[in-house]
Amino acid sequence: MSTTAPDPATRFWSPALRGLSAYTPGEQPQGTGWVKLNTNECPYPPSPLALQRMAEAADERLRLYPDPTALALRQTIAAQHGLRPEQVFVGNGSDEVLAHAFMGLLRHGQPVLVPDISYSFYPVYCALYGVPCQPVPLDEHFRVRVADYLQPNSGIVLPNPNAPTGIALPLEDIRWLLARNTGSVLVVDEAYVDFGAESAASLVDEFPHLLVVQTLSKSRGLAGLRVGFALGHVDLIQALTTVKDSFNSYPLDRVALAGAQAALEDEAHTASLTRRIVDSREWLARELTALGFECLPSRANFLLVRHPRHSAPRLQQDLRDRKILVRHFKQPRIAEHLRITVGSQPECEALVAALRELIDPVRHRDSKVTPA
Question: Regarding beta strands 228-232 and 133-136, do their DSSP bridges make them parallel or antiparallel, or are they unpaired?
Answer without folding.
Answer: unpaired
